[in-house]
Amino acid sequence: MCGSKCRNLNHELLVATRNRGKLDELVNLLQGTRYDLLSLENVNIQDEVEETGDTFEENAILKAEEYGQMAGIVTIADDSGIEVDALDGAPGVLSARYGGEELDDQDRNALLLKNLANLPDSKLTARFRCVVALSRPNQETVTFSGSVEGFITRKPRGTNGFGYDPLFYFPQRRKTLAQIPAEEKHSISHRGKAVRKAVHYLRQMAQGFGEIPS
Fold first, then answer.
1. What DSSP assignment string belongs to 77-118?
2. Catalytic annotation present for 88
3. For labelling, which of 27, 63, 85, 126 has a CA lying 20 to 30 Å from the CA of 55?
């Protein structure tokens, strides 16, 4: 990732997240674009953008636009989470704050399992959903989405990834996302799908086009 000594404002892309796991995934997925990738730390942004939106799209746009305005460069941000059908789509947009700000990933996984304990396996259908927003100075913000369907397991499995990955069982691989190597996960995950659309758009921008992939 580029630091302050190699800055070229016309070729910079701010990856706007403080979540280390998410940052690593986004940087990996954004390799191959013409942009130098910067973190919030690289551009000395200390302010936090509050996620006040009711949807993943609203929160992604909010973060991309506000951090982009602070930095003055092209900015990418995402909002993502897990939706459990038996919980009417919860945790949803509150996935990162499920149960309270003081909980860590392990605590949230335990809470989710507790809330699903009395349900049969057939009711544990769920999906990961991600919306990526791309903000550009003086231009309209564009968004890209991705999702992956699966089930919640009865106990955490695997040590890769972060968040709810150890609980999310992906039937086609017969593993949780936390049991799948990073490169393979990127090829099937909600975030991978959304970011690949954004990468395609960035490449189109570099060539003077700007069609949004479906």
1. EEEEEEEEGGGTT-BGGGGGGTT-TT--HHHHHHHHHHHHTT
2. no
3. 27
